[in-house]
Amino acid sequence: MAIYFAFCSVCSTFAPVMAKDLTLTNTQFEQAVKECRALFEKKLHDYGASWRILRPTALTDQLFIKAKRIRSLEVKKESLVGEGIRPEFIALINYGIVGLIQLSRGFADTVDISNKEAMALYDQYANEALELMKRKNHDYDEAWRDMRVSSYTDLILTKIQRIKEIEDLQGQTLVSEGIDANYMDIINYAVFGVIKLSEKEQEC
């Protein structure tokens, strides 16, 4: 029987519990996405849906910057600006969801949706990503728990590179999945990172 960590909404921590099935993991997925949603909503209040003006290539580069910083911190073991790795994984999740929205609606020259509409879109694509995570976790039997966080980082960077290649090909691929599938994978790996780092903090 494996020991995992359940998220406590009262104390905002992951507490150790005994897990027999995938129910706990699904709860951890949901809590991680809930945390990301809360931050997204606060930033939406402050900035509005300013991300609507991002063209696909700019969004890809923003994802790249976040993932590259994670890898840099993993290698250097030191941050000079204070923020650690976990917030960057949260940013990757939120930008990944923004990417799915932009793929669906296209980019705009000005902010063309209300905060309420933006949150509805966020919830739609966050839920799609969440349900996909649950299905994949069922099929892969929690394999991500035995992976290192640095591997999530490298896999995310690989997915971003693939998106760049697909953009350069203007979407004309032969056998590859589309950009949307790569966004989903980025969200998936970043959620793993959020959970694993939360568990590590609780062990200290």
Describe the structure.
The chain is mainly α and 204 residues long. It is 67% helix and 7% strand. It contains 6 helices and 2 strands. A two-stranded antiparallel sheet has the order 1-2. A hairpin with a 4-residue loop joins strand 1 (2-8) and strand 2 (13-19). Helix 1 (23-47) runs antiparallel to helix 4 (115-140), helix 2 runs antiparallel to helix 5 (149-168) and helix 3 (86-105) packs across helix 4 (115-140).
Strand % is 5-15%
Structural shape: globular
Portion in helices: 55-70%
Average pLDDT score: 89
Topology:
Blueprint: E1 2-8, E2 13-19, H1 23-47, H2 56-76, H3 86-105, H4 115-140, H5 149-168, H6 179-203
Antiparallel strand pairs: 1-2
Helix pairs in contact: 1-3, 1-4, 1-6, 2-3, 2-5, 3-4, 3-6, 5-6
Task: Please give a quick description of this structure.
This protein has 204 residues and is mainly α.
Any key phrases for this structure?
about 200 residues; two-stranded antiparallel sheet; disordered N terminus; mainly alpha
